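Protein in question quoted for reference:
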Amino acid sequence: MTVAHRITMLTVAGIGAVALLTACGSSTPTTTAAGAGAAPAASSNDGASADVTNMDGMDMSSSKPKADFNDGDVMFVQMMLPHHQEALRMAKWAQTNASNAKVKDLAMKMQMEAQPQLSKLNNWLTAWDKEPMADDDPMMTSMPGMMSSAEMAKMRQMKGGMFDRMFTQMMISHHQGAIKVTQNEIARGSNAKTKTMAKTIQTSLRSELAELKQLLPTL
């Protein structure tokens, strides 16, 4: 083999090696491109982290349920409680002090209606984190239909026909005052259950009021 021939063969081999190296080197950009392709996934993860951060920083108080009552509902319950309690005391006295059968029957009816309602009224105040009206609250004495301490003490001492007349007269006034309390709740309240009770109480009070008014002239 001549020197020229050897030079030619080495040249061809060198060109082939350079081509091979070039081909191998071209895989590096492909890998880099693949790495670049992974970048959006990383960006997506970063976005999820941002969302979580935003959720952690969110004021979750806005997700709490809104109160299902208003001041009108609270006032109704606070006023109806002493109304029912006073009516129950009067009705219990009627069972022992009254002489008229119709007076006793009406008093028993009032007890049966008011007693279960008292439990509901108390439960609502507890659920709403509200307190019953204090005995010395000025509204207690100014509440429509409520009797004075002197009137209640006098009634308790009455017997027979005198008790029948006083009970009927005072209960008429008592019912009229309680009806005003229910009217206020129906007009101003927002709680569905308390409004329903107000309507129920109003219906029964109107019916009993009519009976009391018919009964009074006969005593």
The longest helix spans residues 27-56. The chain has two domains: 3-60, 71-218.
